[in-house]
Amino acid sequence: MSSNQKHKTVATAPTKRTGSFILENQKSLVFIIGGIVVLILLYIGYQRFYLAPRAETAADQLFKAEAYATIDSLQQRAIDGDGSYPGFKEIADEYENTKSANIANAYLGGLYLRQGKYQEAINALEKYSNTGSTVLDPLVIGLLGDAYSELKDYNKAASYYKKAAEKNSNTFTSPLLLKKLGLVYEAQNDFKQAVEAYKRIQSDYPESQEATSIEGYIARAEARL
Questions:
Q1: pLDDT score for 5
Q2: What pLDDT sits at residue 10?
Q3: Which secondary structure element, helix H or strand E, spans residue 140, and what is its range?
Q4: Spatial CA neighbour of 37 closest among 121, 107, 105, 92
Q5: Virtual torsion, Cα 64, 145, 26, 193, nearest 10 deg
Q6: Residue 173 gets which letter from DSSP?
Q7: Is the pTM of this model over 0.90?
Q8: Which of 183, 154, 156 is nearest to 22 (CA)?
Q9: At what angle are helices 154-166 and 174-187 packed, to 10 degrees?
Q10: Residue 92: its pLDDT value, please?
């Protein structure tokens, strides 16, 4: 079994052992898996509404960085540029207050998170402004929760996950964020709230992917009450 397969097993199939959350959290990917992939897929189509001339220039330059972002070995070029095209960092600074800069900051946050640079991720994500997207906005808030989770600041992580789950409720992001919220509550030994978060997935989003395996998480948390 490859390491990637092991990560996926950790993230989707809870064990009934008492220390299962510790095992999940050691790998870190329980929080960030899926987030960066979803961001990339969203942004490829999302940048198409830039209309102002200055924003249009930034959007044109954003394409190359986006292409690099989809390739693991080239993600540093996505951040820093390649000498001919700017990376997300330069776009965010050079075209501040444009929609492209806003998207660049979201990309930066996701990529820094992937690299384990959690404070840099927070700095970038905090510069992101809501766009009105029912999927993108809660996902970026959730990435802030991911960063704080990795820093073991579970109070802040829970706050961001809760805010993200309640913002623009939908079957795509809300159950994913509620699951992360439950895991953070488990990390704090607050198993009552963990159960409540998991059961919301079961009751409010029964058709979601997360709902298919949530009974195991509920049973684990209830056993610790």
A1: 42
A2: 33
A3: helix 136-150
A4: 107
A5: -150
A6: T
A7: no
A8: 183
A9: 160
A10: 93
Q: Which residue has the tokens 């992001």?
A: 173
**What does the block give as tokens for 173?**
């992001």
Give residues with Cβ within 8 angstroms of 31, minimum separation 6: 145, 146, 149, 150, 180, 183
Residue type, 134: T
Residue spans per domain, the chain = 44-129, 130-224
pLDDT number for residue 114: 87
Q: What is the distance between the alpha carbons of residues 50 and 223, in angstroms, rounded to a whole number?
A: 51
DSSP per-residue letters across 35-80: HHHHHHHHHHHHGGG--SHHHHHHHHHHHHHHHHHTSGGGHHHHHH
Q: Considering only CA atoms, which of 19, 22, 24, 21 is closest in space to residue 9?
A: 24
Distance CA 189, CA 224 (A): 8
CA gap 88, 79 in Å, rounded: 5
Burial bucket for residue 20 (CB in 10 Å: 0-12, 13-18, 19+): middle
Given a contact cutoff of 8 angstroms between Cβ atoms, the answer to whether 52 and 40 are in contact is no
Q: Where in 57-203 does DSSP place strands (E)?
A: none
User: In the CATH hierarchy, which fold is given to the domain comprising 130-224?
Assistant: 1.25.40
Q: Using 50, 70 and 90 to split pLDDT, how confident is the model at 55? A: low
Give the CB-side neighbour count of residue 38, counting CA atoms within 13 A: 15
> At residue 13, what are phi and psi to the nearest 5 degrees?
-125, 95
